[in-house]
Structures are given as structure tokens and as C-alpha cells.
């Protein structure tokens, strides 16, 4: 299913506040109380989120009287995970980015939960696309998504108008992006297009361009994987950035940027376009104080031969050390906290009504559905009175992304490969005479070594 749609509470991580009414599968083992530790609890500084989490736990324990839930504010750390798993010092439910599941599955560090999930009455209605990155070659499922996204192009509608561009007709190709960026820079003096380049985010965004230009990031090689980015699509993408930076002068003067750097400049009205998702609307509005959120526009990923975009997100999984009653309890928690609330229109409507009263909320921002389109339309209808964003400003994103292939992030050593490609992006954006072919040759060698070291 290549569709995007309106999520009931996009931008809000904790979706289970009112889910207690639907239950999650009955009581735990009769031998006694089972205690599970779960990641995903907000820090004390997020008072509203912490309140939601505690209520979600209370609702769960009420319908599952044999299970006690202890929240953890720990976050995913690939450098310490293996040691914690070996030492038995890892939570029973962990939250990981979508770059990690395939590696965890292949190393047998997480547990298959297909049998437990199959007992949930709506299991067969889950979006296969949402489960694919969490499944092995035989179709065994190892987790539940929390958030899923597809990358697109975010743009400032006010800057488009100031530059003489039509904000209701955003760029659909990378030639059009280049032209629009130059026009914004020439007409307004602002940065036309800004690209992330540090903290592995440069390699991540180069992967997005690679897909849009028709490339691949890796390929199966014997019993493992090999890098595949050293090819024409990536070269063309880097040549585009090189021309925008040094010929058009449309990418501004600050090139070593994280995602937060980019969105902060965008929210201040200084950037015309960047690669992002509808979910960055809330970051611009809340985290960085965008004065007029109505200026936020987003369209599907522009294409130059790929007809594809990168998808990603956050997921919850169960470590391999968790078995028996704890495993059953962990899966019940996953269903209760992250699956049921996205299925029940009444729950979605109640949450949307509550969230719409918060000025910092973003109800109605599109994301990828957990279930089929027909069911998602029921959710959309249930929340329509509480949507507090301008849906027209997301329309081209929904329409365009529905036609694209959604391609997952690299399976093998993704973060390490992204870090290697950071240096390539940085060189192109800071050295007018950077040798793209030589940079990619070196990056391919380094990436192959990282993939081999990771056992992939």
C-alpha cells in the first residue's frame, strides 16, 4: 500500500491515553504479578507527556490486573545495547529507530512476537507496509510501529509568494527545486534550499536524494550486503547540490547543519525549502516558535527518475532475553499502547478533542497509516472537527506520496554508512572543487568495511 493519510494525533508520541476502554487481551499469568519495564516514558521536563504516559499505564494495569508496568526514560544506544542485553540489564520493551530492526533480527537480539500478536483480533488488518521493516524473510514479526513517515519537501509558502512562486504548485522535480531555490535567493535574499550535513544526517538526506534519482543504497551480496550508492544516481544528486551551492549560490552560507539547525532557520523565515516530513510542522511551530505556522507547506519528494522516497520512523521491540509470561505481557503492552489507539475511531476522536485544546498540538498532520485506507478514513472522519492545521497545505504531499514507492533505510550498518556519507556531503558543500567521484570511491570502501564489521 503506497498511501499516506491523516493520522489521528500526528506529532504526539504517546497515543494510549484513552485506550483503556478497549482492553488488550485479558489478565496475565495466574502464577502472580508480572512486572515489565518499558522504554518510551517521557522525561520529567515533559510534564504533559509524562502525565499521559502514567494514565496510559494506569489504564493498562486496570484491564490487565496481573501485570505491572514500570516506565523507563532510557533511549536507544547502539553502543551499549549488546552489553546491556548480555548482562540482563535491558528493558523488556525497547524503542529503536527504523534503521535498526533488520540488524537486531539477524543477530537474534530481539524476539519474534507473531504468535502473541496474532491473538489480537485486528492483527490481520495491520498495514503490511508498516510491518515489513519489522519482519524477517519468513514473515515473522518482531515489533510494533510507533510512528511511520515518508520523506518529502517542506517549503515556506510566504517566501514562495515573495519570490513570485506559486505556493499551491510546489516543485515536483529536482530541476524545479533548483530553479525555485535560485529564485528565492535572488528575489528575497534568503536561503533557497538548506541541506543537513552533520550527525549522520547528511548521509541520511543523501539517501533520500539517491532514491529520488533512481538509486539504491545497498545490495545483497552473497550471504550479506554491499554498498551500492557509488553510482550515477548519487553522483547526479551530489552534482545538483554542488551547482546549487557554488553556481546558483542558493544554499546560504551555513553548511554544517543538523536537522534542528535547519528547522530553526526555516521557522525564523530564513529558508525556502528543506527535506523533511509533515511531522516537522510541530518542531517548527513549538520548538522553534514559527510566528505564522500557516506558512508551513509540504509536498511529496521531488523526483528525477526514481519515483521513490525514503520511509522511516520509531518502533518498539522486545529483546531476546524476554520470554514466557514477561513476553506475553510485553506484547499486550505494545498492542494496548500503540496499536489499539490507532484502530478505534472513538479513542482517536477523544484524543484529538483533548489535544486540540493545547496550543502546541498538531492534530491532522499526515503520516503513514497502520491499517488499510478504508479504516483510516473512519479515523479521519472521527477527528475532522478537531483538526487544527490547514489540511490544504499538506494536500500535495498526500497526493504525491501515494504514487511513490516507499523505500526503507539501509539494512546494513545504516548509521555508520550515514556517518561516512556525511563527509562526502560536507566536502561538496564546503569545497567548490570537491571531486565527487573520488569522494564516493573512498566512501564505498569505508562503508564496505563497516558493513563487514557489523556482520552483514
Structural features, described:
The chain has 2 domains: about 230 residues, Periplasmic binding protein-like II (D-Maltodextrin-Binding Protein, domain 2), CATH 3.40.190.10; about 210 residues, Periplasmic binding protein-like II (D-Maltodextrin-Binding Protein, domain 2, 3-Layer(aba) Sandwich), CATH 3.40.190. The protein is of the alpha/beta class and about 450 residues long. α8 crosses α9, α13 crosses α14 and α16 packs antiparallel against α17. α1 links the parallel β2 and β3. Strands 4, 5, 12 and 14 form a 4-stranded mixed beta sheet that branches. A 4-stranded mixed beta sheet has the order 7-10-6-11.
Tally the structural domains: 2
Percent of sequence in beta strands: 15-25%
Gyration radius from CA atoms, angstroms = 22 Å
Portion of residues in helices?
A: 40-55%
Low-pLDDT ranges: 1-31
Question: What's the CATH architecture of the largest domain?
Answer: 3-Layer(aba) Sandwich
What's the CATH H-level homologous superfamily of the largest domain? Periplasmic binding protein-like II
Distance between the termini: 28 Å
Mean pLDDT across every amino acid position? 88
Q: What is the count of DSSP helices, taking H or I runs of 4+ residues? A: 17
How many β-strands, per DSSP?
A: 14
Organism: Luethyella okanaganae
InterPro entries: Bact_solute-bd_prot1, SBP
Keywords: Signal
Protein name: ABC transporter substrate-binding protein
Offer a quick outline of the entry.
The protein is α/β, with parallel strands linked by helices and 456 residues long.
Amino acid at each position: 500500500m503506497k498511501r499516506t493519510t491523516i493520522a489521528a494525533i500526528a506529532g504526539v508520541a504517546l497515543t494510549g491515553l484513552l485506550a483503556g476502554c478497549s482492553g488488550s487481551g485479558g489478565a496475565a499469568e495466574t502464577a502472580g504479578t508480572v512486572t515489565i519495564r518499558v522504554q518510551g516514558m517521557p522525561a520529567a521536563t515533559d510534564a504533559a507527556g509524562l502525565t499521559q504516559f502514567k494514565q496510559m499505564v494506569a489504564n493498562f494495569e486496570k484491564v490487565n490486573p496481573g501485570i505491572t508496568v514500570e516506565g523507563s526514560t532510557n533511549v536507544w544506544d547502539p553502543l551499549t545495547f549488546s552489553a546491556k542485553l548480555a548482562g540482563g540489564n535491558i528493558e523488556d520493551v525497547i524503542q529503536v529507530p527504523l534503521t535498526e530492526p533488520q540488524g537486531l533480527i539477524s543477530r537474534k537480539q530481539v524476539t519474534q512476537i507473531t504468535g502473541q500478536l496474532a491473538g489480537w483480533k485486528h492483527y490481520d488488518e495491520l498495514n503490511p507496509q508498516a510491518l515489513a521493516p519489522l519482519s524477517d524473510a519468513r514473515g515473522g514479526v518482531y515489533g510494533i510501529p510507533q510512528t511511520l513517515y515518508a520523506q518529502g519537501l517542506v517549503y515556506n509558502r510566504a517566501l514562495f509568494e515573495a519570490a513570485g512562486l506559486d505556493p499551491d504548485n510546489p516543485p515536483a522535480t529536482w530541476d524545479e527545486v533548483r530553479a525555485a531555490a535560485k529564485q528565492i535567493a535572488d528575489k528575497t535574499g534568503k536561503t533557497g534550499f538548506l541541506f543537513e550535513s552533520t550527525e549522520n544526517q547528511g548521509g541520511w538526506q543523501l539517501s533520500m536524494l539517491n532514491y529520488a534519482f533512481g538509486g539504491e543504497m545497498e545490495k545483497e551480496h552473497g550471504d550479506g550486503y554491499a554498498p551500492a550508492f557509488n553510482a550515477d544516481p548519487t553522483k547526479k544528486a551530489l552534482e545538483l547540490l554542488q551547482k546549487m551551492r557554488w553556481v546558483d549560490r542558493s544554499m546560504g552560507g551555513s553548511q554544517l547543519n543538523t536537522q534542528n539547525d535547519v528547522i530553526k532557520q526555516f521557522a525564523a523565515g530564513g529558508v525556502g525549502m528543506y527535506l523533511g516530513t509533515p511531522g516537522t510542522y510541530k518542531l517548527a511551530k513549538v520548538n522553534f516558535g514559527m510566528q505564522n505556522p500557516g506558512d508551513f507547506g509540504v509536498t511529496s519528494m521531488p523526483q528525477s527518475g526514481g519515483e521513490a522516497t525514503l520511509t522511516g520512523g520509531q518502533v518498539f521491540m522486545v529483546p531476546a532475553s524476554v520470554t514466557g509470561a514477561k513476553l506475553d505481557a510485553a506484547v499486550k503492552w505494545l498492542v494496548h499502547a500503540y496499536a489499539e489507539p490507532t484502530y478505534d475511531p472513538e479513542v482517536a476522536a477523544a484524543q484529538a478533542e483533548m489535544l486540540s485544546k493545547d496550543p502546541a498540538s498538531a492534530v491532522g498532520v499526515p503520516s503513514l497509516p497502520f491499517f488499510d485506507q478504508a479504516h483510516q478514513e473512519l479515523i479521519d472522519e472521527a477527528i475532522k472537527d478537531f483538526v487544527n492545521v490547514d489540511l490544504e497545505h499538506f494536500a500535495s504531499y498526500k497526493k504525491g506520496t501515494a504514487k511513490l514507492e516507499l523505500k526503507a533505510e539501509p539494512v546494513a550498518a545504516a548509521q555508520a554508512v550515514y556517518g561516512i556519507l556525511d563527509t562526502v556531503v560536507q566536502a561538496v558543500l564546503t569545497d567548490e572543487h570537491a571531486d565527487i567521484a573520488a569522494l564516493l570511491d573512498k566512501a564505498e570502501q569505508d562503508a564496505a568495511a563497516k558493513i563487514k564489521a557489523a556482520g552483514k
